Amino acid sequence: MLETQSRAAPPTLVAVRDPAPKAGRKAQERERARLTAAYAELLQEIRVAQTGVQVLLAFLLTLAFTPRFGTITPLQRGLYVADLLLTSVAASLLIAPAPFHRLVHGRELRRQLLDTSARLAFWGLIALMLAMVSSLLLILDVVLGLHLATCLAGLTLTWFAAFWCGLPYWSRRRARLRRTSPVA
Protein backbone atom coordinates (compact mmCIF):
# COMPACT_ATOMS: atom_id res chain seq x y z
CA MET A 1 0.00 0.00 0.00
CA LEU A 2 1.28 3.35 -0.86
CA GLU A 3 1.35 5.94 1.76
CA THR A 4 0.43 9.36 0.76
CA GLN A 5 2.52 12.00 2.23
CA SER A 6 0.96 15.26 2.81
CA ARG A 7 2.84 17.97 1.23
CA ALA A 8 2.76 21.22 3.00
CA ALA A 9 2.90 24.39 1.02
CA PRO A 10 6.41 25.73 0.82
CA PRO A 11 7.07 28.56 3.20
CA THR A 12 6.52 32.01 1.81
CA LEU A 13 9.77 33.71 1.08
CA VAL A 14 9.97 37.20 2.48
CA ALA A 15 12.44 39.47 0.82
CA VAL A 16 14.54 41.12 3.43
CA ARG A 17 16.47 44.10 2.19
CA ASP A 18 20.05 44.17 3.21
CA PRO A 19 21.26 47.78 3.43
CA ALA A 20 24.90 46.88 2.91
CA PRO A 21 24.69 45.86 -0.78
CA LYS A 22 22.66 48.96 -1.59
CA ALA A 23 25.21 51.18 0.15
CA GLY A 24 28.00 49.32 -1.63
CA ARG A 25 26.29 49.80 -4.96
CA LYS A 26 25.89 53.50 -4.31
CA ALA A 27 29.57 53.79 -3.42
CA GLN A 28 30.47 51.93 -6.61
CA GLU A 29 28.23 54.21 -8.66
CA ARG A 30 29.78 57.30 -7.04
CA GLU A 31 33.27 55.97 -7.75
CA ARG A 32 32.29 55.15 -11.34
CA ALA A 33 30.88 58.67 -11.79
CA ARG A 34 34.00 60.21 -10.23
CA LEU A 35 36.30 58.24 -12.54
CA THR A 36 34.18 59.12 -15.58
CA ALA A 37 34.28 62.82 -14.67
CA ALA A 38 38.04 62.67 -14.09
CA TYR A 39 38.52 61.00 -17.48
CA ALA A 40 36.38 63.68 -19.20
CA GLU A 41 38.47 66.37 -17.51
CA LEU A 42 41.67 64.68 -18.67
CA LEU A 43 40.38 64.55 -22.25
CA GLN A 44 39.66 68.29 -22.14
CA GLU A 45 43.25 68.92 -21.05
CA ILE A 46 44.56 66.66 -23.82
CA ARG A 47 42.51 68.54 -26.43
CA VAL A 48 44.41 71.73 -25.58
CA ALA A 49 47.77 70.01 -26.08
CA GLN A 50 46.66 68.21 -29.25
CA THR A 51 46.05 71.51 -30.99
CA GLY A 52 49.65 72.52 -30.32
CA VAL A 53 50.93 69.18 -31.56
CA GLN A 54 48.87 69.39 -34.74
CA VAL A 55 50.08 72.90 -35.56
CA LEU A 56 53.70 71.97 -34.86
CA LEU A 57 53.50 68.76 -36.88
CA ALA A 58 51.90 70.56 -39.82
CA PHE A 59 54.65 73.18 -39.70
CA LEU A 60 57.38 70.55 -39.62
CA LEU A 61 55.87 68.49 -42.41
CA THR A 62 55.71 71.49 -44.73
CA LEU A 63 59.16 72.76 -43.76
CA ALA A 64 60.94 70.01 -45.69
CA PHE A 65 59.31 71.22 -48.92
CA THR A 66 60.49 74.82 -48.71
CA PRO A 67 63.29 76.02 -51.02
CA ARG A 68 65.62 76.91 -48.13
CA PHE A 69 65.43 73.43 -46.58
CA GLY A 70 68.06 72.16 -49.02
CA THR A 71 70.63 74.61 -47.62
CA ILE A 72 70.45 73.56 -43.95
CA THR A 73 73.49 72.07 -42.21
CA PRO A 74 73.76 68.42 -41.17
CA LEU A 75 73.20 69.49 -37.54
CA GLN A 76 70.02 71.35 -38.51
CA ARG A 77 68.87 68.33 -40.52
CA GLY A 78 69.44 66.12 -37.46
CA LEU A 79 67.50 68.59 -35.30
CA TYR A 80 64.69 68.57 -37.84
CA VAL A 81 64.49 64.76 -37.84
CA ALA A 82 64.60 64.62 -34.03
CA ASP A 83 61.93 67.30 -33.84
CA LEU A 84 59.70 65.52 -36.34
CA LEU A 85 60.03 62.27 -34.40
CA LEU A 86 59.39 63.96 -31.02
CA THR A 87 56.30 65.65 -32.40
CA SER A 88 55.04 62.35 -33.80
CA VAL A 89 55.65 60.66 -30.44
CA ALA A 90 53.78 63.47 -28.68
CA ALA A 91 50.87 63.14 -31.10
CA SER A 92 50.68 59.37 -30.66
CA LEU A 93 50.81 59.57 -26.85
CA LEU A 94 48.20 62.32 -26.66
CA ILE A 95 45.87 60.47 -29.05
CA ALA A 96 46.41 57.07 -27.35
CA PRO A 97 43.74 57.52 -24.63
CA ALA A 98 41.00 57.54 -27.29
CA PRO A 99 41.77 54.11 -28.80
CA PHE A 100 42.59 52.75 -25.33
CA HIS A 101 39.12 53.83 -24.19
CA ARG A 102 37.52 52.31 -27.27
CA LEU A 103 39.22 48.95 -26.68
CA VAL A 104 38.40 48.67 -22.96
CA HIS A 105 34.97 50.32 -23.07
CA GLY A 106 32.31 48.35 -21.23
CA ARG A 107 34.78 46.13 -19.40
CA GLU A 108 34.67 47.96 -16.05
CA LEU A 109 38.25 49.16 -16.39
CA ARG A 110 37.64 52.83 -15.59
CA ARG A 111 40.44 53.04 -13.01
CA GLN A 112 42.95 51.51 -15.45
CA LEU A 113 41.65 53.74 -18.23
CA LEU A 114 42.13 56.86 -16.13
CA ASP A 115 45.54 55.84 -14.77
CA THR A 116 46.90 54.76 -18.15
CA SER A 117 45.48 57.79 -19.94
CA ALA A 118 46.99 60.12 -17.35
CA ARG A 119 50.42 58.51 -17.84
CA LEU A 120 50.08 58.69 -21.62
CA ALA A 121 49.09 62.35 -21.39
CA PHE A 122 52.01 63.14 -19.06
CA TRP A 123 54.58 61.56 -21.36
CA GLY A 124 52.86 63.11 -24.39
CA LEU A 125 53.27 66.53 -22.79
CA ILE A 126 56.93 65.82 -22.05
CA ALA A 127 57.45 64.84 -25.70
CA LEU A 128 55.57 67.97 -26.79
CA MET A 129 57.75 70.14 -24.55
CA LEU A 130 60.91 68.62 -26.03
CA ALA A 131 59.52 68.95 -29.57
CA MET A 132 58.70 72.62 -29.04
CA VAL A 133 62.15 73.36 -27.63
CA SER A 134 63.75 71.39 -30.44
CA SER A 135 61.76 73.36 -33.03
CA LEU A 136 62.78 76.58 -31.37
CA LEU A 137 66.41 75.46 -31.39
CA LEU A 138 66.21 74.64 -35.09
CA ILE A 139 64.62 77.96 -36.04
CA LEU A 140 66.87 80.03 -33.78
CA ASP A 141 69.94 78.25 -35.14
CA VAL A 142 68.96 79.27 -38.67
CA VAL A 143 68.16 82.84 -37.60
CA LEU A 144 70.72 83.62 -34.86
CA GLY A 145 73.40 80.94 -34.94
CA LEU A 146 73.97 77.86 -32.83
CA HIS A 147 75.45 79.45 -29.69
CA LEU A 148 72.65 81.94 -29.04
CA ALA A 149 70.06 79.42 -30.19
CA THR A 150 71.32 76.87 -27.64
CA CYS A 151 71.19 79.44 -24.82
CA LEU A 152 67.66 80.56 -25.71
CA ALA A 153 66.41 76.99 -26.19
CA GLY A 154 67.90 76.05 -22.80
CA LEU A 155 66.10 78.97 -21.16
CA THR A 156 62.88 77.95 -22.91
CA LEU A 157 63.25 74.36 -21.72
CA THR A 158 63.76 75.63 -18.17
CA TRP A 159 60.68 77.84 -18.54
CA PHE A 160 58.52 74.98 -19.80
CA ALA A 161 59.80 72.59 -17.13
CA ALA A 162 59.16 75.15 -14.39
CA PHE A 163 55.54 75.77 -15.38
CA TRP A 164 54.56 72.36 -16.76
CA CYS A 165 56.25 70.21 -14.11
CA GLY A 166 57.77 72.27 -11.31
CA LEU A 167 54.74 74.40 -10.44
CA PRO A 168 52.29 71.47 -10.23
CA TYR A 169 54.70 69.37 -8.13
CA TRP A 170 55.44 72.32 -5.86
CA SER A 171 51.69 72.94 -5.42
CA ARG A 172 51.06 69.28 -4.60
CA ARG A 173 53.89 69.22 -2.07
CA ARG A 174 52.68 72.42 -0.44
CA ALA A 175 49.13 71.10 -0.16
CA ARG A 176 50.39 67.81 1.32
CA LEU A 177 52.47 69.69 3.89
CA ARG A 178 49.45 71.80 4.85
CA ARG A 179 47.34 68.67 5.37
CA THR A 180 49.95 66.95 7.53
CA SER A 181 51.15 69.92 9.59
CA PRO A 182 49.64 70.35 13.04
CA VAL A 183 47.20 73.19 13.42
CA ALA A 184 48.60 75.88 15.68
Describe this structure in words.
- The chain has five helices and no strands.
- It has 184 residues and is mainly alpha-helical.
- Helix 1 (19-63) runs antiparallel to helix 2 (74-95) and helix 1 packs parallel to helix 4 (110-144).
- The longest helix has 45 residues, at 19-63.
- The protein is flat and about 70 Å long.
Key traits:
single chain; 184 residues; mainly alpha
List the helices and strands and how they pair.
Layout: H1 19-63, H2 74-95, H3 97-104, H4 110-144, H5 146-180
Helix pairs in contact: 1-2, 1-4, 2-4, 3-4, 4-5
- What summary fits the major beta sheet? none
Helix content: over 70%
- The tally of strands reads 0
Query: Using only CA atoms, what is the Rg?
Result: 29 Å
Helix and strand sequence: HHHHH
Low confidence ranges: 11-16
User: What is the residue-averaged pLDDT?
Assistant: 86
Task: Describe this structure in a few short sentences.
It contains 5 helices and no strands. It is mainly alpha-helical. The termini are far apart.
